[in-house]
Amino acid sequence: MKKQTLKHLAVSSALLGLMLTASVAGAQVRGIKMLPGKRVGASASQASARPSITPGSPTYAFTLLNYPGQLYTFANGINKGATTSKVWIVGSYGLTEDGFSVGGFLTRVSGTKTVTEAYQAVNYPHGTEQGALGINDLGQIVGSYTDSSGFSHGYELSGGKFTEINVPFTGAFDTAADSINNSGEIVGSYNASDGEQYGFTLIGTTYTSFNYPGATYTLAADVNNNADIVGWYIDTSGVTHGYLLSGATYTSFDFPGATETSASGINDAGDIVGFYCTTSQCISTDEGSQGFLLSGETFTTIAIPGESYTQAADINNKGQIVGFYQDAAGLYVSFLATP
Predict the structure, then answer these.
(1) CA distance from start to end of the chain
(2) Is the pLDDT of residue 19 over 80?
(3) Under a CB-based contact definition with an 8 Å cutoff, are residues 319 and 39 in contact?
(4) Rounded Cα gap, residues 320 and 314, in angstroms
(5) Could you tell me if 156 and 205 are in contact, meaning their C-beta atoms sit under 8 angstroms apart?
(6) Which of 183, 139, 147, 181 is nearest to 164 (CA)?
(7) Taking 60 as the threshold, does the pLDDT of residue 277 lie above it?
(8) What integer pLDDT is reported at residue 159 of this predicted model?
(9) Between the CA of residue 111 and those of 33, 90, 243, what are the distances in Å?
(10) Per-residue pLDDT, 113
(11) What mean pLDDT value characterizes the chain?
């Protein structure tokens, strides 16, 4: 199981110095509440160096993120910044022929007018098809890797030590650890022998499984420092919806007019990011997928003008968003969007 990831040609990292725009669509959230296992297609073409600019509101300054010496870079998570001003981003790099990432990384981002990035590899020993998926303010990292038999396992990296994470439930396999908050609570997902996928939480040594009521598939993508969880689920009709799990209360939501909606990140203020599709082609190929920000009851589209699709992966307490877009050449480019 692999969290939805991005890929990009590795070139020199630089602040674009551009102010890109996001269109706003007001909407109401319905009351009640990328992808391990989802692969991305490879392309040998080069990425566009600079997205175009269009007028609109709000505006973000976009910084491209490129793991040195690799053709593809996948930004998956960002620390919330509740107890530190440091900005840490984790993700994956490389791409196998089957469309899975090769390794994981951590980058420390600093500066405003001039942005610098310092990268280091984060790889579970002897693992393959792996990536770093989440990080908290203490620098603890979670992710997943594939073993020699083709099974996926989660991991936590804390104090330089890796700890493997596997849910202990009967019939469970392919565990992915997607996010960790400052209390050390880990959320993720796993496959089961009944053919469904479930979310889980790990608090201390206690695993708890959960499933959106009536869903055939539940993915837990992120957890904030209030223990609020977001992700997406598939209903019995095969439709994907975003959800928020706060305490014991689920809230389901969909971007207005979307054919599918997936939530992938939440900050401590409850702002949620993710991505949505409006056509059946988008569901099957990702073409036309757009990112979104849900703040209160208002949805905002996060889109790179002129590119085939954009997805928002995570958000911190400053409102900075990490994600990726696919350019005209078919490559996926990571970004840090700063409001």
Answers:
(1) 32
(2) no
(3) no
(4) 8
(5) no
(6) 147
(7) yes
(8) 96
(9) 37, 18, 34
(10) 66
(11) 82
Contact indicator for 324, 335 with CB cutoff of 8 Å: yes
Q: Per CATH, the architecture of 15-47+57-338 is what?
A: 6 Propeller (2.120)
Number of C-alpha atoms within 13 angstroms, CB side, residue 15? Answer: 14
The confidence score (pLDDT) of residue 49 equals 34
Q: Assess contact for 302 and 323: CB atoms under 8 A.
A: yes
How many residues would you count in the chain? 339
- What tokens does 146 get? 């594939």
> SS3 for the chain, per residue?
CCCCCCCCCCCCCCEEEEEEECCEEECCCCCCCCCCCCCCCCCCCCCCCCCCCCCCCCEEEEEEECCCCCCCEEEEEECCCCCCCCEEEEEEECCCCCCCCCEEEEEEEECCCCCEEEEEEECCCCCEEEEEEEECCCCCEEEEEECCCCCEEEEEEECCEEEEECCCCCCEEEEEEEEECCCCCEEEEEEECCCCEEEEEEECCEEEEECCCCCCEEEEEEECCCCCEEEEEECCCCCEEEEEEECCEEEEECCCCCCEEEEEEECCCCCEEEEEECCHHHHHHCCCCEEEEEECCEEEEECCCCCCEEEEEEECCCCCEEEEEECCCCCEEEEEEEC
What does the pLDDT look like over 60-97, one tens digit per residue? 888 888 888 887 888 999 999 999 999 999 999 888 88
Residue 288: both structure tokens together: 């036309």
